[in-house]
Amino acid sequence: MLKTLTTSVFICLLVVLCTSVAVAPPVATAPVALTPAAALAEAGLPAGTVDKIEDLLTMTPKEYRKLTGKKLSLKEVIVLKAAQKKIKKQMRSGERQRDDIPVSKGLFIVLAIFVPIAAVIMMGIADEWSGNRWWIALILYALCYIPGLIYTLTKLNDFSYNE
């Protein structure tokens, strides 16, 4: 009696874990590259003061004052710094999207099925060890093989591959 109850609870838990992980990931949209004029307009600052994106990323409030003759208020300084961070983040995500996983898609699937730790390492390499996907895959593989496999295969399309 106790053995059948334990087995049924384990099977129910396994089904719940597998179905909750098997949801399709949201479709990622490519980030829109901001031009210096668009970034300044979004920040609420006058456009046409900066020609190159590098100049905008390194601009300080003193340099802005030299260019325009207008002193930035505290709110405008915060908006300028936020715009700089946003552009830097978009540039980093654009670089990360160009990174390839060092194996082909078919080999990655085989690794995910037969050598799960290798698939987790490949996910970590593709994320430059900064994302959470490889941690989640590692934990799911450690808890139970099937949820880890499902999670890894659903995240398969988030990476580009050497075909």
UniProtKB/TrEMBL annotation:
It holds the Pfam family Pmp3. It is found in: Membrane. Coiled coil: none annotated. InterPro entries: PMP3 (IPR000612). Keywords: Membrane, Signal, Transmembrane, Transmembrane helix. The chain crosses the membrane at residues 106-126, 133-153. The keyword Metal-binding does not apply. Residues 1-24 form the signal peptide. Belongs to the UPF0057 (PMP3) family. This is YqaE/Pmp3 family membrane protein. It comes from Neolewinella maritima.
